[in-house]
From TrEMBL:
Organism: Devosia elaeis
UniProt protein name: Nucleoside diphosphate kinase
GO molecular function, one term: ATP binding
Gene: ndk
InterPro entries: NDK-like_dom, NDK-like_dom_sf, Nucleoside_diP_kinase, Nucleoside_diP_kinase_AS
NCBIfam families: PRK00668.1 (NF001908)
Active site: H115
Length: 138
């Protein structure tokens, strides 16, 4: 059974959407096995998004991620990585399919409400970035 890493981003937490977003995951067969609310430090946000550090939007992305608290989660289920990406919808909400989290809730490509790992290697890496093994309660 597969595990993936998810962030409910500041724009969504600020608008009190934690429950509605977790409901989408649960309705689609993903089970939260670890979750916590944190206020990311600049160092954490820069480290987490290090792959994007040469991109023009990096500074804005980091500022948005540290502006207010987030919820970090590990989701477990059959094909969890791909399933989570489907539930999230396209990065830019203008391109997101009906019923997806980003179509329903995202404000813009930057404030797009959720993050989800894109592959098994990044999922493992991102889970380790925020959780220790004893926090994963399957
Ligand atoms: P994540 O699940 O967040 O990784 O989204 P993604 O894989 O769909 O997108 P990608 O990894 O390409 O980009 C990471 C994040 O950077 C996105 O979720 C956006 O919030 C942000 N981002 C991407 N492109 C832009 C952009 O053109 N402008 C701004 N402001 N942010 C962007
Ligand atoms: Mg990505």
């Amino acid at each position: 059974i597969e595990r993936t890493f998810s962030i409910i981003k500041p724009d969504a937490v600020r608008r009190n959407l934690i429950g509605q977003i977790i409901a989408k995951f649960e309705e689609n067969g993903l089970r939260p096995i670890a979750l916590k609310k944190i206020h990311m430090t600049r160092e954490q946000a820069e480290g987490f998004y290090a792959v994007h550090k040469e991109r023009p939007f990096f500074g804005e992305l980091v500022e948005q991620m540290i502006a207010s608290p987030v919820v970090v989660q590990v989701l477990e289920g059959e094909g969890a990585i791909l399933k989570n990406r489907e539930i999230m919808g396209a990065t830019n909400p203008e391109n997101a399919a009906e019923g997806t989290i980003r179509k329903l809730f995202a404000l813009s490509v930057g404030e797009n409400s959720v993050h989800g790992s894109d592959a098994p290697e990044t999922a493992a890496q991102e889970i380790k970035f925020f959780f220790s093994d004893d926090e994963l309660v399957g």
